[in-house]
Amino acid sequence: MNFVDRDFIPVLLGGDINTYSVARAFYERYQVKSYIFGKYATGPSYQSKMIEYKANPKIDTDDYFLRTVNSFAEQHADKKIVLVGCGDSYVALVSKHKGELAGNIIAPYIDFDLMNRLQQKETFYNLCEKHGVDYPGTFIYSREIGRNFKLDFPFPVILKPSDSIQYWEHPFESQNKVYTIHSREELEKVLDDIYGAGYNGKMIIQDMIPGNDEYMRVLTSYSDHNGKVKMMCLGHVLLEEHTPHGLGNHAVIITEPNKELMMRVKELLEELHYVGFSNFDIKYDQRDGKFKFFEINTRQGRSNYYVTGSGFNVAEYIVEDYVYGRELPLRYAKDEHLWMVVPKAVAFKYVKDPKSRAKMKRLIREKKVVNPSFMKGDLGMPRLARMVKTHISHFSKFKKYYKC
Fold it and tell me: Which of 60, 78, 212, 385 has the smallest set of CB atoms within 10 Å of its CB?
C-alpha cells in the first residue's frame, strides 16, 4: 500500500467494523495511515496494513483516554490530529473532554451537554414531536414507577435502554441490545434483571412496528462546523444481525433516495446547531404508511461504509471542513449501491422480498457492491484468516438466531 504524507493524521477510537470503515475512507481519499486506539487486539482493524493499531482495555476511561490522545498529539505537534470516535462511549469521551484536548486536535462533535441530552432517547422523541418527525408509540419507564403503569399499545412490545452507554456498563447473563417482550410477566422480569444488574437510567417501552428487517431504514447526515447539513444518505436495510449482542446491527443495505424524509431531519439538526455526523434508525410502519424514527446516534454508524460506497466519503467531509476550511455543497444520495457484511448466500437466503433480491442481483452484476472488511491490498495473513472466519460464521449465527 502506498501512503502520502499529509498535514493531518487520523486517530480513531474503537475496534469494530466502524473504525475499519472510517480508516478505509481516509486511505481511499487521502492515502494516509490511520492510528486506532481500541480495547483489544482483535477485529477488522487489527493487523491491517493501512492502520497502526494500539490496544489497551483502559482506552475508554477518562484519564487514560486523555493521556493517550494528548501524548500522541504532542508527539506529532506539526500535524493536525483528526480525532474520530467509533462508538457511543468514545464519542462521549471526546465531547466531554474537548476543552482539555491538545491544541492541534480536531474534535468534530457537539458539546457534551447537548450530546448527553440527545443520548437520552426521551429527549430525542420530544424533538421529533416539535419537528413533525414520526416515532413509535412510547412509554418512558423509570425504576421508581415500579409495577404501577399501563401501556397504550398491545404486546409484543420493544424494550431498550434510554441510556445505552450506562446500560452496557452493567452486564448480566441475559443482557440484550434490544428486547422483544411478549407479555406483562416477561416485561417485569426483564426490567428486574436490568435494574438488578445496576443500571439506574430510564427504559423505553415501545409499540412494536410490524414487519421484518426489510422495513428498516438508516439515515446518515453530516453537518459542518457552522451547523449546516451538507450531506444526507438514506439506506434501505434489507437484513440485520440477530445475535443477542448484535441485534439490530445492519448486515445488508441498499442506498435509496427519499428527499421529503431527509428534509424533516435537516430542519431538526439545523435548529439544534448540530455539528458532525448523525445517524438515525428508522422503520416503515405499513399500518399508517409513515416512517417511524427510533433514535439518533451522535456519530457515524458502524455501517458507515454504505455512505462512502455510495459516493460520499465520510473522511472527506471532516477533512475538507475542519482541516482545509472549504465550503461544502449540500448533497443528497440518489444512486443505488449495495453494502453487505454477510456472505451472498446468507443475504439471498434471508432477504425475503423478491424485488429486493432482484435488485441485489442487479447491483452485484453491475459491480455496485462492497463488503468494507475485504479491501484490495489489505488482505494479508493473518488478518485475512480472521476476517474469513468471521464472514463464514454468519451461516451458523443466522441459522441459530434468525426467527423471522
Answer: 78
At 350 the pLDDT is 97
> What distances in angstroms separate CA 324 from CA 34, 76, 300, 390, one per listed residue?
18, 18, 21, 38
Q: pLDDT digit string (tens) for 128-154? A: 988 889 999 999 999 999 999 999 999
The residue ranking higher by pLDDT, 404 or 167, is 167
pTM of this structure:
0.92
C-alpha angle 149-153-156 in degrees, rounded to nearest 5: 100
Q: What percent of the chain has pLDDT over 70?
A: 100
The dihedral over CA atoms of 341, 35, 50, 342, expressed in degrees to the nearest 10, equals -10
Q: Which three cell numbers stand for residue 90?
A: 468514545
Residues in the chain: 404
Q: What is the mean pLDDT of residues 121-133?
A: 86
Q: Picking from 77-81, 114-118, 282-286, 304-308, which range would have the lowest pLDDT averaged per residue?
A: 114-118
User: Which backbone phi and psi does 63 adopt, to 5 degrees?
Assistant: -65, -45
Residue 343 corresponds to which cell in the numbers above? 456472505
